[in-house]
Specification:
Elements (H helix, E strand, L loop, with lengths): L12 E2 L6 E2 H5 L3 E6 L6 H19 L2 E7 L3 H15 L7 E3 L4 H5 L14 E6 L5 E7 L7 H16 L2 E2 L10 E3 L5 H7 L5 E4 L2 E4 L11
């Protein structure tokens, strides 16, 4: 299947380095980042898994569970985890799905035959507590992902879910945000009584709501 934004991510059950994963039950009421890797014992993937392990406290602070996937069996994953700890300085601290039968990869459309018909591309799925797909990114096998950027997009998604705002290009926590165009000035004044800066009638900047409670990347 081909998932589109706001589609419900289907449930699945598969083995992992932390036992059987029944996805919807495992996710619970949290956000999830599910990211796939071409295969075990590959150099770029090794650096990515080490990076996510290092950043896991930042995902935790945002109420986000992380879940990796590679198309090799659990035994291979455990052996690879030793290399990750040794070379990256951080041990694997989240489950890595063992998708040896390509069941989950096929379900979530993680194999792109033009790139490879046996291994997954570097896809990132950000899934909200309602199991809706909120963000998807796909990288070629040769390019490692920027997980700080993924944290930034999660910050934006969570903020804009709570408030009638959007985030501008290159936005970071604590910076001004944009009042959504669906609010006219009268409606905006009720929500943002402190006022805003009008750059254009459709571009109104306002200080980020909840700046004092927002997590910092």
């Amino acid at each position: 299947m081909s998932l589109k934004l706001f589609d419900t991510v289907p449930d699945f059950s598969q083995d992992s380095t932390e036992g059987r994963i029944d996805f919807h039950d495992w996710a619970g009421a949290d956000w999830v980042v599910l990211f796939s890797h071409p295969k075990d014992f590959t150099p770029v993937c090794t650096t990515e898994l080490g990076t996510v392990a290092r950043l896991k406290p930042e995902f935790d602070r945002r109420g986000v569970k992380v879940l990796g996937l590679s198309v090799d069996p659990v035994e291979s994953h455990h052996d690879w985890a030793q290399d990750i700890a040794q070379t990256q300085g951080t041990a694997l601290n989240f489950p890595l799905i063992a998708d040896h039968d390509r069941k989950v990869s096929t379900l979530l459309d993680l194999i792109h035959p033009g790139a490879s018909d046996t291994t997954t591309v570097r896809t990132v799925l950000v899934i909200d507590p309602a199991k809706k797909l909120r963000l998807t990114l796909t990288y070629p096998a040769s390019t490692g992902r920027n997980f700080e950027e993924i944290l930034r997009t999660i910050d934006s998604l969570q903020l804009t879910d709570r408030h009638k705002v959007a985030t501008p290009a290159d936005w970071r926590q604590g910076e001004d945000v944009i009042i959504v165009p669906s609010l006219d000035d009268a409606a905006a004044a009720a929500i943002f009584p402190q006022g805003w800066t009008t750059v254009k009638p459709y571009l109104r900047l306002v200080p980020q709501p909840e700046t004092e409670t927002a997590p910092e990347a």
